[in-house]
Design a protein that fits this description.
The longest helix has 17 residues, at 93-109. The chain has two domains: 4-227, Hypothetical protein, domain 2 (Endonuclease III, domain 1); 238-357, Nucleoside Triphosphate Pyrophosphohydrolase. The strands form two sheets. Strands 4-1-6-5 form a four-stranded mixed β-sheet. A three-stranded antiparallel β-sheet has the order 3-2-7, with no helix packed on it. The chain contains 15 helices and seven strands. The chain is elongated and about 80 Å long. Helix 3 (39-49) crosses helix 4 (54-67), helix 3 (39-49) packs antiparallel against helix 9 (128-138) and helix 10 (148-157) crosses helix 11. The chain is of the alpha+beta class.
Amino acid sequence: MTDYNRTLQNFNISKFQSDLLDWYEANKRDLPWRKDQDPYKIWVSEIMLQQTKVDTVIPYFYNFLKKFPTVYDLAAAEEQEVLKAWEGLGYYSRARNLQYAVREVVEQYGGQVPNSPKELEKLKGIGSYTKGAILSIAFNQPEPAVDGNVMRVFSRVMNVDEDIAQPKTKKLFETITREVISHEDPSAFNQAIMDLGATICTPKSPACLICPVKEHCQAFELGVEQQLPIKSKGKKNKKMKYVVLLLRNENGKIAIEKRPEEGLLANLFQFPMVPTEDLAIDLVESWFSSAYNLNIILGQKSGALKHVFSHITWELDIYQAVLNGEQEIPEGKLKFVDDKELAAYPFPVSHQKMMQYL
């Protein structure tokens, strides 16, 4: 392993800071959560930005803050209302954890987002990156906020050839950032590194010739910027096949159900799904009868969709179906609603796309 302490000793930190911050002042992105240093707004934006692109987040951020302008509004809201505001952003546990943590802030800290690292990291859904982002951006504390952008920038600047998928490598980048961060303006410094990674020091084809810190960058000097950062491949994506039923009762209402309280897409609503990995299509009716205690008649196939999550891919065949005569609906599983009522329920993106077949 390279001796990064020695690398830092030979690194012109003050010049790096000034080059970076001068560039940021002239080129920083106009983002809605940068209008002020409100820790609640910064918190919401950082949670939304996890695994999600900036352009996607912006309209959601505006809508979310309009519905829940303060921690008190979010703490008092119904979970279904929060999930509906998050609908389409994905990774819905982020929204549930955010609301849970905001309720803690209201109950334990009088509605004030804590500015202590120990208190912040106790809140649900706040890891080391989000903690650092809130402390540095909102409270101007020199705390590292290390995400993929930051690791990519510093892996090139410092020529770090360690695997960024390893937790120990993230710790290394936190150490490097803590040494290099501006103590005069840590808020601007962390945001500048994020902007640099998003606009100049990109994963592919970095724009090295116009980079404001290229004279500090070892990877650029050695011509290895395209090889960094090093990242081992994750687990193979698993395919799961389902038949999704657009099931109507004798009144023409459509069947929906709530997903479990834990796990993937928890507490969102969906059209009923039949796992068909080892199930022939002519057995769907009998599977449904045993699982739901309802007899159905399977109709025409309306379409097919594929939805990719980080670890699995859903392959979805969409079929029309009707209940076989009048039947008593068992409690706790399906509910039948008018088509126009669907808008009140939070659905995952894959099931929103199916509404074109209704």
